[in-house]
């Protein structure tokens, strides 16, 4: 029997979000209903609201979430009722060419729940990243549920569902930062700060944080940055080279998603170094680089989608590191808010006043 819950809806492009009644169906085969305990307010949700992802309004927003499995559909084996889980938007298929080659983190056929959630008038909702967790309960594919230690704070655990995992993974999985490496991170929001944490966790000796906001640079230092660069006052490329013996960083992580900052990342790396793009560009952006420089500098130019993570592998490991005191996930939680405060949280995010607002149920 379907249930009615409260959820945050984006009704149309740039319209204020509002709390409405959402109809959640019983889980079908391979699906699960999750009682959401906490969900972070991510920039991706704002992009949905602004029409920057697509125009499939109305959206049920929210995707950085943790909660407890309430019920599962027939044939579900991944989780069972009562499991504490982090939700992910990369439920791997296990059968595509990436999965069959033993690289499921690149799965080309990830999936979500088949049944739609709706408004009470029957209009189908588009759940953000196939999750829709700014709601008291949500319907997802069972493979989107990753079981973790239930002792961890849900507000902390849920952040691994998107931004924090994207940043940590950009450093550890995509950039393959190693012991003694030098790393530069351009853009010190939530994803950039997570990349700093990931680089330090991987053993980087020098981590250089770059931003235009002094507040964010101070925050980056608290996350483990050894040096900071205010790009309004200093030449980013030259300063990074100066801080790395004149060579450039071994790995440069671009967490802004703009052509000008990507160009900085490209020239701020050492010869044979690695650039990782984890910032999300908009469709109209273009990049112009001399092809001879691309050839002559060698190394790798990579994009990192969701930190090249495999949730079943990475989420439990990172939660364990957090419990050991080696991964300060709690530092990412700036404030805890109610469901009806999401619109105000977007304003604070846009102003750069928070690292993460987290809706707590």
From TrEMBL:
The family classification in the record reads: Belongs to the zinc-containing alcohol dehydrogenase family.
Question: Which coenzyme or cofactor does it need?
Answer: Zn(2+)
| TM ranges | none
> Which Gene3D superfamilies does the UniProt entry name for this protein?
Medium-chain alcohol dehydrogenases, catalytic domain (3.90.180.10), NAD(P)-binding Rossmann-like Domain (3.40.50.720)
Task: Please give the NCBIfam families that the UniProt record associates with this protein.
Answer: mycoS_dep_FDH
Source species of the chain: Streptomyces bathyalis
UniProt xrefs under PANTHER family: NAD-DEPENDENT ALCOHOL DEHYDROGENASE, S-NITROSOMYCOTHIOL REDUCTASE MSCR
Q: Which CDD domains match?
A: Zn_ADH_class_III
The Enoyl reductase (ER) domain covers which part of the protein?
A: 12-359
Matching SUPFAM superfamilies, A to Z? Answer: GroES-like, NAD(P)-binding Rossmann-fold domains
**Record has Nuclease as a keyword:** no
Write down the EC number: 1.1.1.306
Keywords (alphabetical) are: Metal-binding, Oxidoreductase, Zinc
From the Swiss-Prot or TrEMBL record, give the protein name.
S-(Hydroxymethyl)mycothiol dehydrogenase
**What Pfam families does UniProt report for this protein, alphabetically?**
ADH_N, ADH_zinc_N
Recall the GO molecular function terms of this protein's record: metal ion binding; mycothiol-dependent formaldehyde dehydrogenase activity
């Amino acid at each position: 029997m379907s249930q009615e819950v409260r959820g945050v809806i984006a009704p149309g492009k740039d319209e204020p979000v509002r709390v409405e009644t959402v109809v959640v169906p019983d889980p079908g085969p391979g699906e699960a209903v999750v009682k959401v305990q906490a969900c972070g307010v991510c920039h991706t949700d704002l992009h949905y609201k602004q029409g920057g992802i697509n125009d499939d309004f109305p959206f049920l927003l929210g995707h950085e979430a943790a909660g407890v499995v309430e019920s599962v559909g027939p044939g579900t084996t991944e989780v069972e009722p009562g499991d504490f889980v982090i939700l992910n938007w990369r439920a791997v298929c296990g059968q595509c060419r990436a999965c069959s080659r033993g690289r499921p983190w690149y799965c080309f056929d990830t999936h979500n729940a088949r049944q739609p959630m709706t408004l009470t008038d029957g209009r189908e909702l588009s759940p953000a990243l196939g999750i829709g967790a700014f709601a008291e309960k949500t319907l997802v594919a069972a493979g989107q549920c990753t079981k973790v230690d239930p002792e961890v704070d849900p507000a902390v655990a849920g952040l691994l569902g998107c931004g924090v995992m994207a940043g940590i993974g950009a450093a550890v999985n995509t950039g393959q930062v190693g012991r003694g490496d030098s790393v530069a991170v351009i853009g010190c929001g939530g994803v950039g700060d997570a990349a700093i944490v990931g680089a330090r966790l991987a053993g980087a000796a020098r981590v250089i944080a770059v931003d235009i906001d002094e507040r964010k640079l101070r925050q980056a230092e608290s996350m483990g940055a050894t040096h900071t660069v205010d790009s309004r006052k200093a030449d980013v490329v030259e300063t990074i080279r100066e801080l790395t013996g004149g060579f450039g960083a071994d790995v440069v992580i671009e967490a802004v998603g703009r052509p000008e900052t990507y160009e900085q990342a490209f020239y701020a790396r050492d010869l044979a170094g690695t650039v990782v793009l984890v910032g999300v560009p908009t469709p109209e952006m273009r990049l112009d680089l001399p092809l001879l420089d691309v050839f002559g500098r060698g190394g790798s130019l990579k994009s990192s989608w969701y930190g090249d993570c495999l949730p079943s592998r990475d989420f439990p490991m990172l939660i364990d590191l957090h419990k050991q005191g080696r991964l300060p996930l709690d530092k990412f939680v700036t404030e805890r808010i109610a469901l009806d405060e999401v619109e105000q949280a977007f304003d604070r995010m846009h102003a750069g006043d928070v690292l993460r607002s987290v809706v707590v149920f």
